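WARN retry 2 of 3 for item q-0093 after timeout on previous attempt; input resubmitted unchanged.
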Amino acid sequence: MSAIQLTGVITGTAGVARAGTMGWPVLAFLIAPSVVYAMFFNMRDQDGGTVPGAVDNLAASAMAVAMCRFLVRNPSYIPEDTEIRFVSFGSEEAGLRGSRRYVECHLAELRRLDTRMLNYEMVAHPEIGILTSDENGTVKNAPEAIESAVAAARRAGVPYKVKSAHLGIGTDATPFTRAGLKAVSLLPFKVPQQNVAFYHQKWDNPDVLAIEPLLNVLKLTFEWVCAAGGCDGHRSAQRESEGSQSRVCDKRGKQAIPSMQEGDPRPTVPFQGPGFIHLPDDGQRRICYDKAITTRRLK
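OK item q-0093 returned
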């Protein structure tokens, strides 16, 4: 019996007694977190078990390394007067401690440079979720950051979905957004199917990785980086003046690949081939850092 029920009994007020009765919604609210914890965060193995973390979040770290390697070898795609930092934050599962500390230490510089942040989280599904919010939906990302990711996805021709963060989602973009910086997270992850299949479990190993989600993220990122240097504006102007022609441009907005008329094979673009991801003969999927970037014609 709760204190409210006892008050109702003493005063003889049935409504107060009913108000103090614990109903099914309250019980579910108390039980649900325990169920989630038992399913995804607790294992019988010693020290909580072994979670390889191929998807959460080594795949995202590998994408940062891959994109960095491409731009180092192809600096013409880096917009002028632009510094690009590739960071893999630690202690994300411990309250975003790594990204929070980074923002705290560099906040003045990040604000002075008008920093834009594109964050990867759990690259496992071909459709890229572009988050409008973060940290359980309580932090709203800057509209400009969201729009830039959407525009890049459209130019890259990859599937995407704009959505808000639900309960349980908190990414390293949160400290940046909280500090007033323009940040957005990409979440190519299928809920609840992939949650049940391997999320925070021993099955989160390289076998669950697929080529398409990784390439889609790289294509989107390439377009996002290129647009920061005015490349997108050049493309739009060319489409308006030349109709159906298609171009790929360098950091100065100049034509890097000859334009092609409608019906011709589309121009080559990075990340179409297996330059980053190598599938050896044994069928195991693994990230391969020592491969050069390859380009192939789009199908």
